Queue: 2 jobs
Job 1
Amino acid sequence: MSFATIILAAGQGKRMQSSLPKPLHRLGGKPLLAWVLDSSFAAGAEKQIVITPQDNTQIADLIRNYADRQEADVTTAIQHPPKGTGHAVECAAEALDGYEGVVIVAFADTPLVSADTYHRLAQSLTASDLGIACLGFHAKDPTGYGRLITDDQGGLLKITEEKDASADEKTITFVNAGIMALKAPMLFEWLSEIGFNANSGEKYLTDCIALARQKGHGVIAIEADEDEVLGINDRADLAAAEAVMQQRLRHAAMAAGATLIAPETVFLHHDAIIEQDVVIDPHVVIGPGVHIGEGSEIKSFSHLEGVRTGPCCVIGPYARLRPGTHLGEGVKIGNFVETKNITMGDLSKANHLTYLGDSTIGTGTNIGAGTITCNYDGYNKNRTTIGDQVFIGSNSALVAPVTIGDRALIGAGSTITQNVGEDDLVVARGEAKTLKGGAIKLREKYKSLKA
């Protein structure tokens, strides 16, 4: 079924202690607000209105980019000054003028709610006499939460706040998550009848419950998991939500056919693509823009970002693959190797202690330990091109721009500043000179200078 969503994102978020608006803090590498937009959209939201603070261009930019990318109906409405949840929802009245149907009120700082839960919440109001559905959860510790007081049929009688709860009500663990589904246009009619609280000066959305019941509309409560409705108020909450998100991402990767040896030690960006039969060893970070090909292995303490590998690659341990790295089939990148902006052909390898940047490397090429592509001259980045079946000896420096032809051999310790032809053998190192007994003379000289 289709519905509209109002997402409240106008809060100050002062407890985050940040110049970045709270809805833009990231979870699994994606802004909190984007998670809510995605889940709502996937559940069937035909229209989404985000309530923002005044003069917040960062949130507005995210919403505009999201709407363009998804081709979705996403608009904003400004709440200024903030006067409670009911007032925030009223700010969306113009955007929903003439709308008849279910409206879900969600929060930008509650990013873990699934599309399925939004769908269940909207679908629960299909009965004609129902006016409101509230999302709740059974809390391990209900202290501080509003208790959901229900009847035997699951109807919601009222929400009792902690300070107003009786001793018996305080034993109730079914508590309010804050997210609600309400029918429009009745929603805005109810809000127009609700006044502002005399003490706080705010209008509360939850006051609609009593008014709806008074007017003969049924009110029900829908249950969700506690982890799903975790709200983020401060950095500690953000870390707790990240733990939940990482658990979801790991489970999804394993369900799709990947093996995570120690899942709790692997950190995944939300957009990671991990194909079947990939093995990820402990203590691996998969950053944004990573696609790992089928049957590959990522060994411990490796960090990948902006990387695409072919099938059956072996990466690490202790490898650092940076954006723009594209690896063919069966490529091996070993310990303490760093890559950036490179293309590496099938069956090529760089097994030890190497930096490869701004390079194109052919198939079946071996890069020896300690090799560096010297891609930066202090002003510009330059490119190194290495052909097929090339052997680069250990501890070589390839000073870009330079091209090394197919099947060439570069001797260990060489510094290559000129192009090398196909099948050429190049040894470019300083001539060794030996002075018999020279070490003795040099030590005596240093001793006398020190004295």
Note: The chain has two domains: 3-229, 256-426.
Job 2
Amino acid sequence: MRMQGRRESTHVRDVRGSRAKMAGGLGLGGLLLVALFAYMTGGNPLNAVLNAVVEGGGGALSAGPGASSGEPYVPTPEEEELASFSKKVLAGTEDVWTDIFRQQGRTYEPPDLVLFTDAVQSGCGGAGKQTGPFYCSADRCLYIDLSFFSNMRRELGADGDFAYAYVIGHEVGHHVQNLLGTLTRAHKEMARLDKEAANRVSVRLELQADFLAGVWAHHDNSRFASLEDGDIEEAIRCAEVIGDDYLQKKARGYVQPESFTHGKSSSRMKWFKKGLTTGRLEDGDTFSVPYESL
């Protein structure tokens, strides 16, 4: 991506180097890494997926209070570069969604980005680095341990700055859903359904967040000419390897569609590309489409 000269968002809380007690809970971006970790350590990857808790668009369970490590934290140059890039991507989402909301007679309230290492205490509870990037609707914050991007490259083969931007855009998509009321309505519906039916609602939420990431990328490119050759392929590859079917087949050798919570690879790629192509918010109603057609 062409990010030279772009502004960095000021809606950032940098708590890297602090320590917090962490209880269970999985973020939306971390499910694949958790399953692969379980696979590599002899655990049951499928159970890791099935036991994931999706709360607040990717929050975690409650945990104990945070505590300072008392030692200065010195980030690597690579991490600082990723931090600057993430702040610039967040600034781009602020510009784009502010314009889109204004056109609809709404006011966009940007989320804060919390950069952490190892563990963090969010409004949705405690979370660790294995959680991956997540959005918490309770405090309207995005949480990222920047080592996730290195893990994407090493463990998943998903690399490139636009792949990283897609991850951030997806989590911001959950914030957009929250502002529009979609997240609350979906969670209320999930609470009254059985697990399989609730999973289907979760899939619709996730695919819409993929679409919204595409909408952001469409307008960011129109405004800043930010996309370079190969960028779209990077994001598509990322969407592919975090599909539920890809995850389950890699971990177990077979898939169980009834346990999907994020959508199969082809669906994730489809909805991201649709948002990227049209840039129209109204084209992303994943809740009206027959489930089999998603």
Note: The first strand starts at residue 12 and ends at 14.
